[in-house]
Amino acid sequence: MRPETRQQKAVLDAIAGIVAETGRAATLTEVAERLDKAPSTIHRHVQGLIRAGLLLEGRGLQPTDTRFGTGWVEGVAYLGREVERIMAEHHAPEAMEEDVRAAVEDAKKAAGRP
Questions:
Q1: What domains appear along the chain, each with residue ranges and CATH number?
Q2: What string of pLDDT tens digits covers the 114 residues of the chain?
């Protein structure tokens, strides 16, 4: 299933971007700020996306992964945890690079992506 309007697609893309960047579900406020729209406007689009089965609503907003494959959100969350662990273990950014690359590959596998 696809978003019905351009605005819904923009909201869904913003949510997916926030999830990818943070490794956690997005908030309505974050989406509104990212799109420079009023929270009430975003809320209306979010409700349409939930009814269409494109968003999960619980403690924050997450795509139902229709565009990213099963496990995408879980893969992003895994990657976020791995990067935090790697950062805690290394003090020099150069030393982190190889471990971060490995974590990205693991997250892709967990998400079922090549």
A1: 6-63 (1.10.10.10), 72-110 (no CATH)
A2: 677 788 988 998 898 888 888 878 889 999 999 999 999 999 999 998 888 888 877 777 877 764 543 345 555 566 666 667 767 776 666 666 777 777 777 766 665 655
